[in-house]
Amino acid sequence: MLKLLEVHEKQFRTTMEKPDGTQSAAYETTYETRECLINSDYIVAVYPHEFRSNLTEEKVASCFPEGSKFSTVVLNGNSFRKSEIIVLGSFDKVCRQIEELKK
């Protein structure tokens, strides 16, 4: 099993008060990591990941230390929530972890 830190979006609710005293709810998102174990037999491919949009890049920059690298891991199997996950760690680091398991 391979232990990785999956990057996921977390949505949270904030309540704002208007000048007239009424309240309104707004939903914002942030990025967090969570530990996950992946069976290395189900890994199909690993790619370096870069966030494409400026808004996403700004959110990521505010949630992770400067210089953080990310990778996309493609999984095979119908039981997974999605076939691609974004993990915290450079492409080289993830590849080394996979190679160490295969020894």
Concise structural overview:
Helices cover 21% and strands 49% of the residues. The protein contains two helices and five strands.
Structure characterization notes:
The protein is built from 2 helices and 5 strands; from the N terminus they run βββαββα. By secondary structure, it is an alpha+beta fold. The two termini are 13 Å apart. The longest helix is centred in the last third of the chain and has 12 residues, at 91-102. A hairpin with a 5-residue loop joins β1 (2-17) and β2 (23-38). 21% of the residues lie in helices and 49% in strands. It has helices spanning 54-63, 91-102; strands at 2-17, 23-38, 43-49, 70-75, 84-88. The mean pLDDT is 85. A 5-stranded antiparallel β-sheet has the order 2-1-5-4-3. The chain is elongated and about 65 Å long.
